[in-house]
Design goal:
twelve-stranded antiparallel β-barrel, single chain, globular, Porin
């Protein structure tokens, strides 16, 4: 974890020293969707790494998820994306196992232009497969994204429904609320609040909160964040780093 933090800090500091040119599609959050799409014909590759620690105080069991993504701008307002996912599970009494988890297809549609309405809306749809799930290997997720800028301050909320497809599939209502401030040109600092209104598997509502930092460079962008449990229903903590490169 210390090495990961040092790498992220190095990228942020060196990038800020060498350029100030930025591009419009850089992410400033790692869990929360934003009001943005690629320009028509725009292409971008993303890679993310996520560490999940369910109960660090009692066990060293954790998971690492690696995700690669390709995005393409169908129009200035509509972006399609494809993800491939791998997961490494640290298990008690056995060697770590890395497995192919599945793929995802994503569609984002940005309504209007920034500032046209009182809030900036975006609609997000996703189809995901998880080959580790025998009963419900497919799921659909829909999000309504509402964003608002106040100068250099951004506030955004996601209202989410995630549904398992198939007989007796569960639907989970979720939300995310985030804010960040551009402290320097291309450098954003903020936080994210993540939770379920109600989780059908546990009949509880896990809640997590944590900081996020992001940097926009002429040739790439990077965002890193952590979430820490607010209540006992949530994982102890999660850490995620995402890097994006337009091409």
């Amino acid at each position: 974890m210390k090495k990961l933090g040092l790498i992220v800090l190095f990228v942020l500091l060196t990038g800020f020293m060498y350029t100030k040119d930025v591009f419009a599609h850089a992410r400033t959050y790692v869990w929360t969707e934003e009001y943005q799409t690629l320009p028509k014909g725009g292409r971008e590759a993303e890679g993310s790494t996520t560490l999940q620690v369910p109960n660090g105080g009692q066990t060293n069991v954790n998971t690492w998820e690696y995700q690669g993504e390709l995005e393409y701008g169908m129009t200035d307002h509509w972006t399609l994306a494809h993800y491939e996912r791998l997961k490494t599970e640290n298990q008690i009494g056995s060697d770590d196992a890395t497995n192919y988890e599945g793929f995802k297809f994503e569609s984002k549609y940005r309504i209007g232009e920034k500032g046209k309405y009182w809030v900036d809306p975006l609609i997000y749809l996703e189809w995901a497969t998880d080959f580790r799930e025998e009963d419900h290997p497919n799921s659909l997720e829909g999000k309504i994204v509402l964003s608002k800028d106040f100068g250099k301050l951004n506030i955004v909320t996601n209202q989410i429904l995630e549904s398992e497809l198939g007989e007796n599939g569960r639907t989970t209502p979720e939300f995310r609320v985030a804010a960040n401030y551009e402290v320097f040109s291309g450098v954003h600092v903020g936080g994210e609040f993540d939770g379920d209104y109600w989780a059908p598997s546990s009949h509880r509502n896990p809640l997590s909160l944590g900081p996020t930092v992001a940097y926009e460079h002429k040739y790439f962008w990077v965002a890193a964040g952590a979430l820490f449990a607010v209540n006992h229903a949530a994982d102890d903590h999660e850490v995620r780093v995402i890097v994006g490169v337009p091409f």
